[in-house]
Design goal:
single chain, 656 residues, alpha/beta, 28 helices
């Protein structure tokens, strides 16, 4: 097994140290770090009477939610469920694929679709809330146009990469969290009794006696919405850096929440009409605080956008999503840019801003989708703990505890469905449907691909090579073999070489692509099937790696030439005399589904939707990273129902 990446080694920040911790603070905690902008405001808008019992209970809920959800579930448990150092719900699923469960992928695509929906609402609510702080200075300020302008800039710069500004995220977010903590402490001194909120007794009292407990819980849940993103960023920073920096971040967040609570209890009459986050800021630094809040919102938005690109890149290799054009705007490993997704997200964020207008209404749309993501992660973590031999009692206790907690949060957030939660659920539903259809359609396609033993055709391929009456098609002929079983070959591939137009070549190359469960694997193995004639190359590609078959094959061929296992010098006398290598030509044989070939209505519907979804992706040559100037596409029908009449109709369509 050999490496075929050709990538330069890029330093990551997994090593524990000041720089690693600083980068972690800048990358990981943008989402959860902006929650103080809107959580307490959302609690005040639930309609619950503001008094000491209510505020202490709400703050106690926040403190223990951050402890149980973020600290224990994600930092202590989920970060240990790493897939070769990578985290996130799809990395966790890839780790569990070997369990061969028929339905476990459902949990993964539900979680992924709701997480992607959260990535659309987060930029809208964080930037809007930050800009609304300016209303305390100028009440008539046009918040929406300013917000849209900032959002436009955020999405526009994605095409250029964020390598340069990303380096400053750590310093900026460190200052942001220090601002949160210091201002929180100053405000706490005006009402020290607010520290009683650490006692979970007040949370229990609120949840058992308040008629609005479910609305309050729905608002409280917003304080932990960035926990799933924290798990997804495991591969960028490492478990120890995240765990250590989380202790600092959590302290600063809690101090700020307590400070807001102290201000509310000191200003009960006016608390409804202002955002406590900006209210606790001294007037002489209010503009500075608004600038910092806007910057933090931009960092959080950037993190969610980059996270979306990474999730969809993983989904493509896991066969959950159609292949799309991916760009690498910088030399930083893992920094992606998907133009179609960037545009779709931008349109989605703009529509949400125009639909809801102010952050108070957006709060109703926020939180519901990510609760479902957390539930799916809990269930997958249960499978992971079981697969690692964890005691059954502990596994059941973990799943039961967190399914109960997140089930309660889900129930609370469902109360916001009509007020705005329907928006993110609609987005999640569309994304889930697309992923589900894609998975099912891919299974149907694989089911009806016919294969044959390759060794039965060694002799005829050798004879075609030696038959000079057949015009030479190319010096090197390359096919992508879609057969999954080792030693077999797609029958349409053989049909292309032997029947459709006999193709004589000096060398035949069969490319087998194996997408493995590890994230960054990029290796190959090569087998000589017929000496100096037929070669089989298997490329092992991790779920975070973008397929670039032309590039990888060039590396494979160079290795074989260097080891003198193959001679690629052209056999044409004039070219061989001058040592010129032979040409390469790729043959792609994509299957085209025709509804006429099946009488199964459900199957026809699935494949019809699949065809529509595939239009947002790119064709197979581009998806495989092939040099399109050397590609020949030979479309063949995907036969589902082998009736003579159907075959004749399909043959007629193909010929036309």
């Amino acid at each position: 097994m050999k490496d075929c990446s050709g990538h330069p080694v890029v330093c990551n920040h997994n090593k524990v140290g000041f720089l690693g911790l600083l980068v972690t603070i800048g990358i990981v905690f943008g989402d959860i770090g902006t929650s103080p902008l809107y959580v307490m405001k959302a609690i005040l808008h639930t309609g619950e009477t503001i008094n000491e019992s209510t505020i202490l209970g709400a703050l106690s809920c926040i403190i223990w939610t951050l402890t149980l959800q973020t600290s224990i579930k994600y930092v202590c448990v989920a970060l240990r469920a790493d897939n070769n150092g990578e985290g996130g719900i799809l990395a966790l699923y890839a780790l569990l694929r070997r369990l061969k469960s028929k339905w476990i992928y459902i949990l993964a695509i539900i979680g992924a679709s709701t997480l992607l929906a959260d990535g659309i609402i987060t930029p809208a609510i964080t930037v809007t809330t930050a800009i609304e702080g300016l209303e305390s200075i100028s009440p008539n300020l046009p918040v929406t146009p300013i917000t849209l302008a900032i959002i436009t800039i955020i999405f526009f710069v994605q095409r250029f990469g964020t390598e340069s500004i990303g380096k400053s995220f750590g310093v900026f977010m460190l200052l942001w969290f220090l601002l949160l903590g210091i201002i929180g402490v100053i405000s706490i001194t005006t009402f020290p009794m607010i520290l009683k909120a650490f006692n979970p007794y007040y949370a229990v009292i609120l949840l058992t006696k308040s008629p609005q407990w479910f609305l309050i819980l729905g608002a409280v849940f917003l304080c932990t919405t960035g926990a799933e993103a924290l798990y997804s960023d495991l591969g960028h920073c490492g478990r120890k850096n995240i765990a250590i920096s989380w202790a600092f971040v959590k302290t600063m967040l809690i101090l700020n929440y307590l400070g807001q609570g102290a201000w509310v209890l000191n200003h009960v009459q006016t608390a409804y009409s202002v955002n406590p986050f900006f209210a606790i800021m001294p007037q002489n630094i209010l503009v500075f605080a608004i600038i910092m809040a806007t910057g933090a919102a931009i960092v959080a938005s950037q993190a969610l956008i980059s996270g979306t690109f990474s999730i969809l890149s993983e989904a493509m290799n896991l066969h959950f999503w159609p292949r799309m054009r991916i760009k690498h705007p910088t030399h930083v490993k893992g920094q992606l840019y998907i133009p179609v997704i960037n545009l779709a997200m931008y349109i989605g964020v703009v529509l949400i801003i125009l639909l809801f207008r102010d952050s108070s209404r957006m709060e109703a749309a926020y939180g519901l989708a990510i609760t479902i993501t957390m539930l799916m992660t809990t269930l997958l973590l249960g499978f992971y703990l079981h697969s690692k031999g964890m005691a059954r009692l502990f596994t059941i206790l973990f799943i039961g505890t967190y399914c109960t907690i997140e089930g309660i949060f889900l129930t609370a957030n469902l109360s916001k469905f009509l007020a705005g939660g329907w928006c993110t659920m609609l987005i999640s539903g569309i994304l889930f449907l697309m992923m589900y259809v894609w998975v099912r359609a891919m299974k149907i396609r694989r089911q009806y691909i016919s294969t044959k033993p390759l060794d039965d055709y060694y002799q005829i391929i050798s004879d075609i090579k030696a038959d000079e009456d057949i015009p030479k098609y190319a010096s090197n002929l390359v096919y992508v073999n879609h057969a999954e079983k080792q030693g077999t070959v797609d029958d349409k591939l053989l049909y292309s070489i032997i029947n459709k137009q006999p193709k004589r070549a000096d060398h035949y190359w069969l490319i087998n692509m194996e997408f493995v469960d590890t994230p960054d694997t990029l290796e190959y193995s090569c087998e000589t099937l017929v000496p100096d004639t037929l070669y089989s190359v298997t490329m092992h590609i991790g779920f975070r790696i973008e397929p670039r078959v032309s590039l990888y094959l060039r590396q494979v061929v160079e290795d074989l030439v260097d080891s003198k296992k193959v001679d690629l010098t052209s056999t044409y006398p004039s070219l061989r005399k001058n040592g010129i290598p032979g040409d390469f030509r790729f043959i792609i044989t994509p299957r085209v589904y025709y509804p006429e070939s099946s009488v199964n209505r459900q199957q026809n519907l699935l494949m019809t939707i699949y065809a529509l979804i595939s239009k947002i992706g790119i064709d197979e040559p581009k998806a495989l990273g092939l040099d399109t100037s050397m590609v020949v596409v030979e479309r063949v029908p995907l036969i589902i129902n082998h009736h003579i009449g159907s075959i004749r109709r399909i043959a007629q369509i193909v010929e036309e």
